[in-house]
Amino acid sequence: MKTEIAQIERTELIKITQTDSISELWNVLVFEKGGCLGGEQYVNETEFKREEKPLVFSETEWKKFSDNDKGKLTEFLITKLSDTTKTKIHTCPFFGATNGEMAVYSLQHIHKKNWFDFSEFKEYKDKEYKSATEQPQIWLQNILKNETDRKKLAELFKNELKE
Predict the structure, then answer these.
(1) What domain of life is recorded for the organism (predicted)?
(2) What phi-psi label fits residue 38: left (phi over 0), alpha (psi between -120 and 50 degrees) or beta?
(3) Which of 102, 67, 98, 63 lies closest to 84, judged by CA?
(4) Coil, strand, or helix at residue 150?
């Protein structure tokens, strides 16, 4: 059984390694491979390090994705913000992430800044979780559904490139 799993993992890695474009790699990671965010969708401002855990942003494939040009990644990910397609990635203990959400979570890791750390969205930073439908994932989904807020968030991440 272990041999079969190792063989599958090697096949996946070869497939991902042979994927050249940012777009192709993104589709493999969020729609084919999937995984669990396990709270790693948010970055800690005081400490940013990758620990070896079986969570999405700790995997080598995501490292390869993040090694692309920061400007190109940012532009690509911003094009995904309005996409509500469900991915194969889930945000423990809540729901499967949308493509737009995954774009934001990826932008957070690339720029080492959470969406709620921008002053325009600071009201969400210390907002209390009230239920499974009143928590950061849903707040972000609602922001992404609102064209004005979505464009504002896109512009804020673009501005991070200038710093």
Answers:
(1) Bacteria
(2) left
(3) 98
(4) helix
Query: What is the Cα–Cα distance from 16 to 95, expressed in whole angstroms?
Result: 25
Q: Cα angle at 119 between 116 and 121, to 5 degrees?
A: 40
The stretch 87-96 carries a mean pLDDT of 84
Q: How many domains does the chain have?
A: 1
Helix (H) or strand (E) segment spanning residue 71: helix 70-78
Higher pLDDT, 61 or 53: 61
Task: For residue 28, give its domain range.
Answer: 2-160
Residue count (the chain): 163
Residue 48 and residue 87: Cα distance in Å, rounded?
25
Cis peptide before 93 (omega within 30 of 0): yes
- Total-model pTM: 0.78
Asked if 97 and 108 count as a contact pair (C-beta separation under 8 A), the reply is: no
Judging by beta carbons within 10 Å of its beta carbon (0-12, 13-18, 19+), is residue 87 exposed, middle or buried? buried
